[in-house]
Specification:
Blueprint (H helix, E strand, L loop, with lengths): L11 H9 L5 H12 L1 H6 L2 H8 L3 H10 L5 H17 L16 H22 L2 H12 L4 E5 L4 H13 L4 E2 L4 H9 L6 E6 L5 H12 L3 E6 L12 E4 L10 H23 L1 H17 L3
Parallel strand pairs: 1-2, 1-3, 3-4, 4-5
InterPro entries: Homeodomain-like_sf, HTH_RpiR, RpiR-like, RpiR-like_SIS, SIS_dom, SIS_dom_sf, WH-like_DNA-bd_sf
Organism: Streptomyces cuspidosporus
Protein name: MurR/RpiR family transcriptional regulator
Length: 294
């Protein structure tokens, strides 16, 4: 009896592939799609076998792995082995959403969705560059002003980011009008930070603000889902947190949770840089909360 072929639904490799796949060249894409279609073969086989199945040179197969940030094929094999083991532990909890239909009990829908949402947060830890995160925290902690930009589905997490940074005592701006965003970006300088949150990294208005901020000398940061996009090519630090797409859900929904997770990490990172000042600012926030409570 032939064993059923495994498929990768989440994990480090899938997360990196999702973030980069749509911007890869045809050869690289063919190799990565071959890996995703039969991860068991990667675990059992060699780079030569992978290259033959994909119809590419062995060197091309190795380069495709490197495009995702791995040192080579062996790194990919180890990562997929680990991802499959973690997936086996969760059994069918990460099954495709096609398994959810009108007969699925509401409790089961909630359980499956929340488990996948949690996986999106775990996967984000695999794609965010710790060095860039640390650099962003350092720059934000001493910024004279922080401009936060987010449009469309990214407006909500951007608003949350601006609110949290303000709670720490940072001078934070969050204009909702696109022309106001552009204007505020032009008025930044070398002492400022511009944080742009964009799922696709291809929002024209958000990109325009990022370009204006960088031209003005500000340190620019993007929280986005894809490693190669117009936005990541213009900012100083790109914090990538992309998740797999789940059935008929808006693809930005799972990623939005990961983006909020990064905002939370920035908040905590900045707070612990200056604990005394942060405590004082958060005490003010607590007092205001009490004043607005019944």
């Amino acid at each position: 009896m032939v064993a059923a072929k495994s498929s990768l639904l989440s994990g480090e490799f899938v997360t990196r592939a999702q973030a980069a796949l749509h911007n890869l060249g045809a050869t690289d894409k063919r190799v990565i799609e071959m890996i995703l279609s039969d991860p068991d073969a990667v675990v059992r086989g060699s780079v030569t076998e992978l290259a033959q199945k994909a119809g590419v040179a062995q060197s091309s197969a190795v380069r495709a792995c490197q495009r995702l940030g791995y040192r080579g094929y062996q790194d990919v094999k180890l990562t997929i082995t680990r991802d499959l083991a973690q997936q086996d532990e969760q059994e069918q909890e990460l099954a495709h959403e096609e398994g959810i239909d009108g007969r699925t009990p509401a409790g089961d829908i909630l359980d499956r969705i929340l488990r996948r949402s949690g996986r999106a947060l775990v996967d984000a830890a695999q794609t965010v560059d710790p060095a860039l995160l640390s650099l962003t925290i350092d720059r934000m902690a001493v910024a004279t002003r922080v401009l936060v930009v987010g449009n469309g589905t990214s407006a909500a997490p951007a608003h949350d980011a601006a609110y949290r940074l303000s709670a720490l005592g940072l001078v934070t701006m969050f204009p909702t009008d696109v022309m106001a965003q552009h204007l505020a970006a032009r008025h930044l300088d070398e002492s400022c930070v511009c944080l742009v949150i964009s799922h696709t990294g291809a929002s024209r208005e958000s990109l325009r603000a990022a370009e204006a901020a960088r031209a003005a000398g500000a340190f620019t940061v993007a929280i986005t889902s894809f490693a190669n996009s117009p936005l990541t090519r213009v900012v100083d630090a790109a914090l990538i947190a992309g998740g797999p797409e789940y059935g008929f859900r808006l693809e930005a929904m799972a990623s939005r949770l990961a983006h909020l997770g990064i905002v939370d990490a920035l908040f905590v990172g900045i707070a612990v840089r200056s604990p005394s000042a942060s405590t004082k600012a958060l005490d003010v926030m607590a007092d205001i909360t009490v004043e607005h409570s019944l």
